[in-house]
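Incident log, structure service

09:12 report received: a user says their structure output differs between two submissions of the same chain.
09:20 pulled the input from the user's history:
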Amino acid sequence: MFRITLPDGSVREVAPGTTPADVAAAIGPGLAKAAIAARVDGELRDIGRAFEGDASLALVTSRDEKDALELARHDFAHVLAEAVQNLFPRTQITFGPATDDGFYYDFAPADRPFTDEDLPAIEEEMRRIIARDEPLVREVWNRADLIARWQQQGETFKAEWAAELPEGEELTVYRSGQWLDMCRGPHLASTGKLDPQAFKLTRVSGAYWRGDQKNAMLSRIYGTGWLSKKQLDAHLTMLEEAAKRDHRRIGQDMDLFHLQSEAQGSVFWHPKGFILWRQLEAYMRRRLDAAGYEEVKTPQLMDARQWEQSGHWGKYRENMFVVPDEIPNVEDDAPILSGTGDLMALKPMNCPAHILIFKQGIKSYRDLPIRMAEFGCCHRNEPHGALHGIMRVRQFTQDDAHIFVSADQLIQEVRNFCDLLDSVYKDLGFDSYAIKLALRPEKRFGSEEMWDWSEQSLRDAVKATGRDTPEYGWEELPGEGAFYAPKLEFHLTDAIGRTWQVGTIQTDTVLPERLDASYVGDDGERHRPIMLHRAILGTFERFIGILIEHHAGRFPLWLSPVQAVVATIVSDADDYAKQVTARLAAAGVRVETDLRNEKINYKVREHSLAKVPYLLVVGKREADEGTLAVRTLGSQAQDVLSLDAMIERLVAEATPPDLR
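09:34 re-ran on a clean worker, output below:
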């Protein structure tokens, strides 16, 4: 008999072959109907998978939304694959994971790539499969038999993957009727557990097999999946709102930036966009100055030997732009490069260079903490297909800093950082964020003792701030840390409920060791500093994209590229409009004048599209009386104010929050 311990501490003895579903049924019919999966010794498993020994058991229902959504989305992906092969019989299947809001599956079509026009028919076939309520049966296969099965069916991608899985790993498939797919699981008990009205296929794109552009191009079908139609409808409404807020469209409407193929993954900032950048940068610089940071500037290009010593060359080289240190040949009939020059690389991050600055001169324990900041321009060799507006680029500027501390200073410095980050986010209009602790990954540098200490230090620091609570979404993420350090991640929630991982702080004892950084302690001996890698915005490009979408282009006045436009109704008011503009500009307001011979309603529409916060309308009456007709963005109302009153209002509202 196996001893099964339930969450309340009670123990049930069951015979071998018993499943979590059997335990649920023994507890009561209500739970038997509600249970959709089980956590056995913490591992999420099929509700019908038999126990293998003594275990702890927690039954999963739809109220456990995170687990329930993961299961449903995984099942939708399998149903999608079966539907595609039903409709397009010679299509090969590859992978189909769940995502944060749905699922996707990669296919190798036999005749042509799939298109969006194929999606309605695939959706209908998926609903037929769900209606059949086919059991999803887990089977363990012998490696040779499974490879032979895939080869027999012409599934070359699956056969390749099965052959490369580690020896000794259990190979499992899930069967739905006669259709099967290789998968670790878990799954719901049957396809009928899915709500046929709770999913929608959204788009088709290209994707390379195993993410390598040297491999075959596949057709990837994306979908969004939920537990109910109500959840789906809410998500689709959010997507509609997100489309309206797309930073690429708003950026064009506001004339902030553009991108083009001549500089893949790099942003062309227009004057108005760069005003926004400069305001954000100036604000961050003031906050860092006040917090005791010292700003530095480090080289873009560094010798590959430096990157080898830091460990990035081995762990990160595929994401680096590598440059030979030689003069290109200018002769037409010879190779441009000899291939014999030493290699250099554009920096993908600033941390090794900051250690090189730290190592200049002898450092004492009295010098610590040293807070070294840089608005550092970095380059990462992202695949073309992964680039997305200004959210994911190849050239970017980090609001980067590294804090060198002794062990007894670490918790206080992390606390200080958390408080600074909290204040910055609130100043920028983000009242809600979650804190996650990303723990050691499988491939990592450093000892287990180092990782234990680093992870616990971050836990203790967050606890000391009082933010290790559900209110702050506190969660630990196994395997998500960097290869050299655990990290705290800060996930912003925007105006329409989406989350963005932005800020981070990492404890690092590995890099100071590899690059031989040290300070003299109060005992007169050399000690290694602990290095805290930290950022609040992440990158300026991505954060500005988030700001655009969060505010839908309606920035706080202090960030707005153009804070006011003085627009005339009649040409008789032109001189007065120029006087108003001059007074506002002298007061520090970013103001433009619109003297065009256009109707005022046309001007209102145009400047509203450009998200100008204040439109100051002047005609003959306003010129005679020294007043302004004030239209605020998003409001149909119109106020009449004196010029002096308007200047006072604009100057007060346009003052950055840290200067108020």
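09:41 both user submissions now match this output. Likely a transient worker issue. Closing.
09:42 reviewer note: The mean pLDDT is 93. The longest strand covers residues 395-405.
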